[in-house]
Amino acid sequence: MDALARHGSKVRQRDVVGIVDFAAPSRAPRFHLVDLAAGKVDTLLVAHGKGSDPGHSGWLQKFSNVPGSEASSSGAYLTGEEYIGKHGRSQRLIGLDPSNDLAEERAIVIHAADYVSAEVLQTQGKLGRSQGCFAVRQEDLDSVLARLGEGRLIFAGR
Asked: Which end of the chain is more exposed for a tag (fewer CB within 10 A), N or C?
């Protein structure tokens, strides 16, 4: 709520926010879609960046905003436009804090990935890692993009 208050003038849509709790391991659902109007929360799986977990323990070790780090960044993001890219349907993210203000330059987005699935969890006990993007299950992507849309807030931290 603090991030929503701090960045309120940039956040056009205030009915739904995304909260990513990177204090939880990748095997746990930790991407919370919070419907503020209805008081309802849906929680989904989401990957973190390779650079945030170099040993692939399944736990985020560190954040980075450095280009080429392949790490997840903390802070508030504004959801941008949808597009079709190398991962298919995706959504751009705009970093609103000094800790993630290079998100656009780093191409940090929301997209689906095969390494985020029940099958990967069953065989590896943890999700695969992104290059810093918020990667979700393919079957969750349509819902995430529809619920967040353009102009909403996502906050990532631990």
From this structure: N
